[in-house]
Design goal:
- With 403 residues, this protein is mainly alpha-helical.
- It has a domain of 166 residues.
- The strands form 3 sheets. It has a two-stranded antiparallel sheet with strand order 1-2. A two-stranded antiparallel ribbon has the order 3-4.
- α4 runs antiparallel to α5, α14 crosses α16 and α15 packs across α16.
- The longest helix is centred in the first third of the chain and has 15 residues.
């Protein structure tokens, strides 16, 4: 599978316009709480951007230029220590730590030693809970289990793909005073457990018409892009408009909501993806508990009705994460997500944005060029999906320690 994902090319104007159109056309996808910041701006601007300038794609001479400001940066491990300490522990380094790095024969090694101590501290656990609260748009009022699980996986350096596949221990709690985690199982009554996908707090937070908000949460949080999630290189024409999805246009339902409508936008550009996933989440009720029947509503006048399978898809359609990635239940969806290279790219890019004081990849379009994070993606793929080790590598990178 090619490594270039939409998650890292979202800044392209056509895709941004398509995403805006789909969100505007479908009120059930609207979420008034999208604002988030992966890296708590109060930590300071920290290191340089490391994103460089220029591109190997598109027109022009092909000669890549370097921003003079970036070229003029110098490595400063003391400044890196200060920035890392604020981000990872929310505390300034002590005078002893500053002097240790400043006076060391090998400042890089001294900085790395201090960095490892920060990453092993209880304060780091709290910072990761805060980070994942922001990324997941969850927290407080019984909504901390998913952020706590993500932070716990990082702290314990377990494969981060367990976020989607864990069959137990997927709803831990976090003691903010001690900076420690306690194991806990999700009690959602789902027939199978699949990490955060069966977390009742997630399902409660993103309850909505036809389970669309739940699909959108998975897409934006872990795939790092808005809908449309799937875009072909060569669109086809439907009623004189561009149809960009790889799915057969007629796979989605036309009644009671016409997802094949093209009067304002081509609804199927988004809904051929969304409608093949949403039924998986439909049995969770408004409290996030699994029931033996569909619990979401189809928004039709004068009164919403309980959604039926035929409201999403035509008869005979199978469920799928994306085109060609068939799933049957939430456990198989979790496995597909765990194997998706685009998910790896998204998770690494989010760590990069946290370290480099960038805004959110999705809501603020703070995308990361693939070439910038590729070494860290390779590390993630080769180290057993240890996201904490990847974060360590980013804090040791030349981009982070240069000012």
């Amino acid at each position: 599978m090619p490594r270039l994902s939409k998650a890292l090319t979202l800044a392209m104007l056509p895709l941004s316009l398509l995403a805006f159109a789909c969100d505007s056309a479908d009120p059930s996808l609207s979420d008034g709480n999208d604002g988030s910041n992966d890296g708590d701006g109060s930590d300071g601007s920290g290191a340089g951007t490391g994103t460089g300038a220029g591109s190997s794609e598109g027109g022009g001479s092909g000669t890549e230029t370097v921003d003079p400001a970036l070229a003029a940066r110098v490595i400063d491990y003391n400044e890196a220590l200060r920035t890392a300490a604020l981000k990872l522990t929310r505390r300034l380094p002590t005078l002893e730590q500053i002097n240790k790095v400043r006076d060391a024969d090998d400042p890089e090694a001294a900085y790395a030693e201090e960095l490892d101590a920060m990453l092993a501290s209880p304060a780091f656990n709290g910072r990761m809970v805060k980070l994942w609260r922001d990324i997941m748009r969850m927290g407080g009022d019984g909504l901390d289990s998913a952020p706590a699980f993500a932070a716990k996986l990082m702290a314990e350096q377990r494969p981060f793909t367990e976020l989607f596949t864990a069959t137990s221990g997927n709803c831990p709690t976090f003691d903010a005073d001690a900076g420690t985690f306690a194991d806990g199982d999700c009690a959602s009554n789902a027939p199978v457990q699949a990490g955060v996908l069966t977390d009742p707090a997630v399902q409660r937070q993103f309850y909505g018409n036809m389970a669309f908000r739940r699909v959108r949460w998975v897409q934006e949080t872990f795939y790092c892009s808005k809908m449309p999630a799937e875009v072909v290189d060569q669109p086809t024409q439907v009623d004189g408009k561009d149809y960009t999805s790889p799915w057969d246009f007629q796979t989605v339902s036309t009644t009671p909501i016409d997802f094949q409508d093209t009067q304002s936008v081509v609804c199927a550009n988004c809904h051929t993806t969304i409608n093949h996933v949403a039924p998986l989440f439909a049995n969770f009720d408004e409290n996030g508990m699994w029931q033996n029947s569909i619990q979401v509503k189809t928004p039709i006048a004068p009164d919403p009705v309980t959604t039926e399978m035929s409201h999403w898809l035509r008869d005979g359609e199978t469920l799928a994460w994306h085109n060609g990635r068939t799933v049957t239940d939430l456990a198989s969806l979790g496995q597909v997500l765990a194997e998706d290279p685009a998910i790896s790219e998204c998770m690494v890019a989010r760590m990069w944005n946290f370290a480099l004081s960038k805004e959110d990849i999705v809501t603020d379009l703070a995308t990361v060029p693939f070439g910038v994070v590729q070494p860290h993606i390779d590390e993630f793929d080769n180290n057993g999906q240890d996201l904490k080790a990847v974060l360590r590598g980013i804090f040791l990178s030349e981009d982070f320690v240069s000012f």
